[in-house]
Amino acid sequence: MRASSYHINTLKEAPAEADVTSHQLMTRAGMIRKVAGGIYTYMPLGLRVLRKIENIVREEMNRAGAIELLMPVVQPAELWVESGRWEQYGAELLRIKDRHQRDFVLQPTSEEVITDIARNEIHSWRQLPLNFYHIQTKFRDERRPRFGLMRGREFTMKDAYSFDRDAASAQASYDLMYQAYIKIFTRLGLEFRAVAADTGSIGGSRSHEFQVIADTGEDLIVYNPDSDYAANIELAAAPTLIALRGAASETLVETATPDAPKCEIVAAQLKRPLTDTVKAIVLATEAADGKAAPTIWLLLIRGDHSLNEIKASKLAGFENGHRFATEDEILDTFGCVPGYLGPVNPRKPVVVIADHTVAHMNNFICGANREGFHYTGVNWGRDLPEPQVADLRNVTAGDPDPQGGHLAIQRGIEVGHVFFLGDKYSKALDATFLDTDGKPALLQMGCYGIGISRIAAAAIEQRHDARGMVWPKAIAPYEVVICPMGWNKSETVRNAAETLYRELEQAGVEVMLDDRDIRPGVMFAEWELIGVPVRITVGDRGLKEGILELQARSDEAAAKVPVAEALTAIV
Ligand code: ATP
Ligand code: MG
Ligand code: MG
Ligand code: MG
């Protein structure tokens, strides 16, 4: 490709609303353009990255025996009513009506449609196992779609669905996908970790997330450096907090600044009836009043206790001098989204009540921790029985972690998620096949998502510097850019650049020839922003000595390469 006939439009400034690096850099590099909140046009350079990610995912899915099809974005409500998710899904599910007032949804995932396909297409055990996938646009009406491609409303996902005869075979399909995911993220060139995870609104009994490691990630991962134990804190929340009381606490406390206890943060996570929860809140706030130091109390409540429900529970005097905060109010109070926390205001005693946002609350704790606050431990409420450390076993992914192991903590971006579904959807939609004994049996299912567009953003969050993006070769928009110095002035430079360009194209390298008449400084800055892994500078001075300059994006210094060896140095 020649830059003069391509569309390159970089910006000096990122839009004010872009508050994560990937959003800023993708916008500045002209890879995405916003159309509406959480809805973007993938511009040519951005689309190339997405296609490369898609291709790697497609190749590895095919290699693992999955079969590609394409299901629609618009799906009839009937199937969603059948599965129960029309009721359960909540506000993230975008519901639309056609001209006849019939209900439809824009798919957030495709369990319903694929199970409908399966019940019509799969008749006999002889057809199993089967794994169908597609790479398709998803829509989720996210509450705060403000991180560019990290959390879009419209985004691209690969989702696969496996069908098996029995649980053992379904487990084998799950393991196969797990292995395929390891290959995919390794090929993408990203540092990642597979962690045990919560099953969320998809349902099912077992799941793992694939997390790209990045300081700006919204998720927190707890892992044991000495064993295979790794879990999303969403799942590990209770054990982690318990661990804080015991042997493992040093790991976390180390990250705080012990000599600067500006405020205390006390957290409790209660998987208990509402009355117990309320009692604990009272105990916690009573204790808070007696303290001299300002205290922030975090009550982590897993469950569906709405604020109104809690307020209506005759919590006499509770509101006096304290503040209830919903998740939205947390944003307002602290000026940042949970997971992207800035400094906490230590002067405000706050009671935070979180419905099923344990992960966010834990991010909050650790965010505060990182700001130097002293984390004192866990208040489980005086008369509530203490959970046992042995609970740790409930969250491990197969080989239980030995009790009391030291846990480390790390931020990540969820880029993939595999679920063992069992018969959750096949039962709801009555998807059966005839088993070896001639009797109908329910299909055993698994489902497997990969956030194609989120991977592009995650790669940037993990790999960037002050000048811009630093793409892994496998997903860079172009692998090499040739920058001729004085394209319009020197025929020698033009010829050398053209020759190298032709040779690289013939060798199958994705190369950009920058034949624009712009200043070298501007040209270099633009390609550094875009993050092309290799830049070759062709100039009169070097050519006189028979050399080109080869600059790897991730290296400090450039290398001088003899013209004749340039091709082998790159390919
Ligand atoms: P999150 O916890 O970030 O909201 P999720 O758990 O809701 O994600 P899944 O239902 O597991 O997401 O979907 C599979 C994959 O789709 C995720 O692992 C992620 O990579 C991607 N994904 C989910 N939501 C979004 C989004 N709003 N924008 C971009 N990618 C997304
Ligand atoms: Mg989600
Ligand atoms: Mg998640
Ligand atoms: Mg998920």
UniProtKB/TrEMBL annotation:
It is an enzyme of class 6 (ligase). InterPro entries: aa-tRNA-synt_IIb, aa-tRNA-synth_II, aa-tRNA-synth_II/BPL/LPL, Anticodon-bd, Anticodon-bd_dom_sf, Pro-tRNA-ligase_IIa, Pro-tRNA-synth_IIa_bac-type, Pro-tRNA-Synthase_IIa_type1. The keyword Cytoplasm applies. Pfam families: HGTP_anticodon (PF03129), tRNA-synt_2b (PF00587), tRNA_edit (PF04073). One of its GO terms (biological process) is prolyl-tRNA aminoacylation. One of its GO terms (molecular function) is ATP binding. It is found in: Cytoplasm. Its EC number is 6.1.1.15. GO terms for cellular component: cytosol. Keywords: Aminoacyl-tRNA synthetase, ATP-binding, Cytoplasm, Ligase, Nucleotide-binding, Protein biosynthesis. Residues 38-472 form the Aminoacyl-transfer RNA synthetases class-II family profile domain. Gene3D superfamilies: Anticodon-binding domain (3.40.50.800), Bira Bifunctional Protein, Domain 2 (3.30.930.10), YbaK/aminoacyl-tRNA synthetase-associated domain (3.90.960.10). It catalyses: tRNA(Pro) + L-proline + ATP = L-prolyl-tRNA(Pro) + AMP + diphosphate. Belongs to the class-II aminoacyl-tRNA synthetase family. ProS type 1 subfamily. Catalyzes the attachment of proline to tRNA(Pro) in a two-step reaction: proline is first activated by ATP to form Pro-AMP and then transferred to the acceptor end of tRNA(Pro). As ProRS can inadvertently accommodate and process non-cognate amino acids such as alanine and cysteine, to avoid such errors it has two additional distinct editing activities against alanine. One activity is designated as 'pretransfer' editing and involves the tRNA(Pro)-independent hydrolysis of activated Ala-AMP. Consists of three domains: the N-terminal catalytic domain, the editing domain and the C-terminal anticodon-binding domain. Homodimer. HAMAP family: Pro_tRNA_synth_type1. This is Proline--tRNA ligase. It comes from Paralcaligenes ureilyticus.
